[in-house]
# Entry
Amino acid sequence: MASIYGNRLQVSIFGQSHAPGIGCVIDGLPAGEEIDLDVLSAFLARRAPGRDPFSTQRKEADAPEIVSGLYEGRTCGAPLCAVIRNGDQHSKDYSEIADKPRPGHADYTAHIKYGGAQDVRGGGHFSGRLTAPMCIAGGIARQILARRGIHIGAHIYAVNGVYDTPFDPCLVSHADFCMLEDKSFCVISDKKGEEMQARILAAKADCDSVGGIIECAVTGLPVGLGDPMFDGMENRLARVLFGVPAVKGVEFGDGFASSALRGSENNDPMVMDADGRPQMTSNHAGGILGGITTGMPLLLRCAIKPTPSIGQEQNTVSLSRRENAALTIHGRHDPCIVPRAVPVIIAATAIGILDALLDSQNAFDLCH
Amino acid sequence: MASIYGNRLQVSIFGQSHAPGIGCVIDGLPAGEEIDLDVLSAFLARRAPGRDPFSTQRKEADAPEIVSGLYEGRTCGAPLCAVIRNGDQHSKDYSEIADKPRPGHADYTAHIKYGGAQDVRGGGHFSGRLTAPMCIAGGIARQILARRGIHIGAHIYAVNGVYDTPFDPCLVSHADFCMLEDKSFCVISDKKGEEMQARILAAKADCDSVGGIIECAVTGLPVGLGDPMFDGMENRLARVLFGVPAVKGVEFGDGFASSALRGSENNDPMVMDADGRPQMTSNHAGGILGGITTGMPLLLRCAIKPTPSIGQEQNTVSLSRRENAALTIHGRHDPCIVPRAVPVIIAATAIGILDALLDSQNAFDLCH
Amino acid sequence: MASIYGNRLQVSIFGQSHAPGIGCVIDGLPAGEEIDLDVLSAFLARRAPGRDPFSTQRKEADAPEIVSGLYEGRTCGAPLCAVIRNGDQHSKDYSEIADKPRPGHADYTAHIKYGGAQDVRGGGHFSGRLTAPMCIAGGIARQILARRGIHIGAHIYAVNGVYDTPFDPCLVSHADFCMLEDKSFCVISDKKGEEMQARILAAKADCDSVGGIIECAVTGLPVGLGDPMFDGMENRLARVLFGVPAVKGVEFGDGFASSALRGSENNDPMVMDADGRPQMTSNHAGGILGGITTGMPLLLRCAIKPTPSIGQEQNTVSLSRRENAALTIHGRHDPCIVPRAVPVIIAATAIGILDALLDSQNAFDLCH
Amino acid sequence: MASIYGNRLQVSIFGQSHAPGIGCVIDGLPAGEEIDLDVLSAFLARRAPGRDPFSTQRKEADAPEIVSGLYEGRTCGAPLCAVIRNGDQHSKDYSEIADKPRPGHADYTAHIKYGGAQDVRGGGHFSGRLTAPMCIAGGIARQILARRGIHIGAHIYAVNGVYDTPFDPCLVSHADFCMLEDKSFCVISDKKGEEMQARILAAKADCDSVGGIIECAVTGLPVGLGDPMFDGMENRLARVLFGVPAVKGVEFGDGFASSALRGSENNDPMVMDADGRPQMTSNHAGGILGGITTGMPLLLRCAIKPTPSIGQEQNTVSLSRRENAALTIHGRHDPCIVPRAVPVIIAATAIGILDALLDSQNAFDLCH
# Structure
């Protein structure tokens, strides 16, 4: 009841940063779905580190072994387990980190929760590395969704207060997502992207880090997905999105901005389209009303806090000596996790959407 | 798998706006807890409508009958069921609303999801009225938490772009909550509160509505509550908070604002206090790291969209005639739901916190 | 996580024997299903007490009020709540029973579990009376299943060692169930039924009670229902059936008898029928292989222990005085609960089957 | 929602007989528990095949790799993943078995459920081989329970109608379990064991198989474990036990035999022991009343059907040709699975008990 998500599709994430491996078990996948492992690898590569000056230099093979659940290239109804071996580990001494909790990390809270038994190496189960298996599960979910015309894309919406052009809430499309995937720095406005990169490099030069916002959209959703109250689309997606380390806020549609609007501005009027199907002429709701999809693009944003691992000396405590202490974190760290988090947010969203779809009487097959 | 929340404490909410009743079943309450029904009624009264010019004039008795689960004034280990009868209903004709979905409401999405079988009267199960049983469950949870020194309070943080003074993230206390409860308009800065009220009345005069933000804090939490990944405190609380109608965004600590910060600004340094206990000297994390409580106050904010029911004519469609249509909503509606939503956000938070506490090995009793 | 059952259909049972009421909330019912309340009442009447010399003389109105979830006679997608008021209660003194646990009852275990806070009156939440809301949920599920050609029937298979003719495992049919429903004592062989009734009356004359076995069958099930391992049909049904008080054993198909067979006797050979559909020529498996339905009738048996409330003096302890004590239970008690448990076993089975059906991709609609 | 078990302790089983591997993820293990991998291996060896004339000759290394969840020999709070590689596989042609479902197996039901996409090799996810990861999870649970004085043992209670001496329901003890573990054929009465072995060898000589019954007991349980209705000990344990392939019946205490008793025979009288603690003088209830443990030994029995894989020619169908067909199964198969199933039943019981213990407010720590 912790690292497991989902009602119908149950994704169980396991592993620690320096354990023999990390991975996931996906229970409840529909049977008979072809999974293209090359497409999956390409998706995983989007979050892999060591590709640019903004990310940690740790090289991860991140090639998952599919231990079970596939038969002749298709899901076979049995739970799918994928394992990634942890290879490039620095076998350094972790005694300092075990004693001096890093500010902004889960070191102290895990120490108290697990009575000192937690795996402190590299953040253990709380490491950002655990987003790799999340991307496996999400990458598989994404293929199943794409086959039904449901596409998910995301971009870096903000870094350190520099904002990208947002998605068009009504017209965002699969073509936009393809365009974004082709970019090495995943923004709509390349000019804003250059500003963001300058902010990241400036922070890096200061041994510091920056946060940002990721905007994600889902197109092709049927009307009627999601359930009232605690299993609405917002609830389901927020639950999986807050499972991505460093996410501190989630909003849908106009989100926090809607709090400043009037009802007459925020309501989405309806019209009948040429085919006699109801449409909204705006999409302040982000494609969700009463927890249920409206058929308009689903839109969400996640706030990502700045990477807590920074090279500057910080104030902390020594748990053993019960006294104040100074800590300087060495090693490889992303000055900004946001670019690598883009596929992770897509993956988390894909997991949430597929679960809702499987959970929704009939919707799954109506999507074919 | 919809109107049920929780792992250990399972709250099931039932009812429609114009059904014979609404209510909740709470399974998993610890046995032997005294429940003060007068305190509960006082808490429910905070969300009751018809008390001021900002809320609907519908009079609700809202006196819940405790059908089961209490014995001699204490929880007895059996599920607690509470029912509120639906009394003051206008037996008007709902055929127009059944055919013309109200913009910003769940009318259209529910129509598609339930194939036309949904209860359209007054919004059915999607009505804001369903927050009354949420307040019953939360009001009971709150008493159990208070007995263990855990207190929850909230205030109107924003209305239509006017912002209140925020809680002090480190020093917010039970005394602040008591002060806020005594106010008829629940803000820290009464001056800002007056501005907010002016905005609400202006919107009302225009047959319009406004949204806002509620800030909520929890004090007295032990360190170590919550679980990694999908059962972290953010995940748990977001799941229950998005169950409150009109919530479109949830953030913890600095939330979206942290996206603009650097790591050196956002990390909370630690110091050892006089009693040899680690403390943070700031609280950007909102009391949660790695999904687990830090012992600092837990802080969250919820964006509330403007009430979709407005008196202006709006564009919609006729589902039966498959053509465009105009709709003017009559009847009693809150020009701003935010003041009445304050106890609801407190209730939802209380439910999430008590569930996490019961779910946490030992923590529950350590709180005594 | 106690009185709630189901994955997709979540049935929450509440109430105590002498609380204001008992009832259930059913979340996840498909929308648009007509519920015939007269048919439901007739089903509830089958478990109602006070109808014959074998059952307690307590008169229960047992007329449930549907508080929510129905709109114009059909399920509307919202959770359905039904409440039965507790009327005919003897306001006797329960102090003796609170101090002297009744052998064979949950008095002692509940006392320890709930630290003395449990509702001791009439067995509280552990009372057989709580099978009434189970019959409401099951009676509703049964109507939805019957509409799809899935029928459930049961008979008294044994009382105190006297055995009825079993169902024909291959040929049992809806017609058999109708025939059984028309009988006041629900057996296939009336001769055996007379013997059973003699045993019950003999026990009653001795201020004693007897146990028995109920056999239940489900016809019309599609092939492919149920999931591997922990969500197989056996797992699902056992979980709900052991929720019926006094059930101490559950078996499927040949069950315990299969343990004495050879594989060549127990395997069910397959043949192709005239329509080119595979069939089994025997049904030792009780319609389940690998947890998944075979298309043959599903067959199960439940062992019901003798009613623990007997009029003879029994040895127990005084919890307050910490000494041995004698106890004579007065009041109205069934000398044999088995006849009234027949509809309860049907109800529990219906709940389990409908949940599995809703949980099974496509199967629900394939049944139409 | 299939191969996952548990409320607090969530065990997810994955793998197919001929996939690269099989294994389990255990989420929710308490942190800081030492796990002795040698003790675990010894436990796994009890179910390993190829040791005697009664079991299949397939050699399984069955040495699990602990991929995550352990740190310095202790559970660290993160999910524990263990993988067993599938080595000794015969890469034979499975096209016949894919077309001709084996009677008594899940071949046909899985074929329909998964639309022909299931992994047919060696039974896929339905293979008895999947009990190996169940034994890993159970073996770990067992060590955690033993540390708290809770012990679990089992014996072959019946084979093909030959019955062993049952456990003494009141006096069964850890010493009995140790005695049984030392035996190569796990019975109380060696004389009966010889008869059983003769039955197995006779069946083997006839290319046939036999079934049996396993009796399992748990000692050292606190009073008050388990929850009412659907999370009682019977419900919880039945759900996990029916996850063991071939189990067709589960009973507790006197189980089906209690159906023939009178209440005066079946009720367990209470007495106060010398230390002023209530005890039962008999244990017909098998240590459970109202779903909650009584403090007496918990007793259960599982009916195991005869191994469906037999060497005799059997009648089945050709799915592709839609005609009758004959099938002769070749290869290595246990003529009686019961001896190897003994540790599996222990494992399943251990999982269910540990979950209930973790789920029970306080009980876990009271056990220390």
Summary: Residues 4-367 of chain C form a domain with the Chorismate synthase, AroC fold fold (CATH 3.60.150.10).
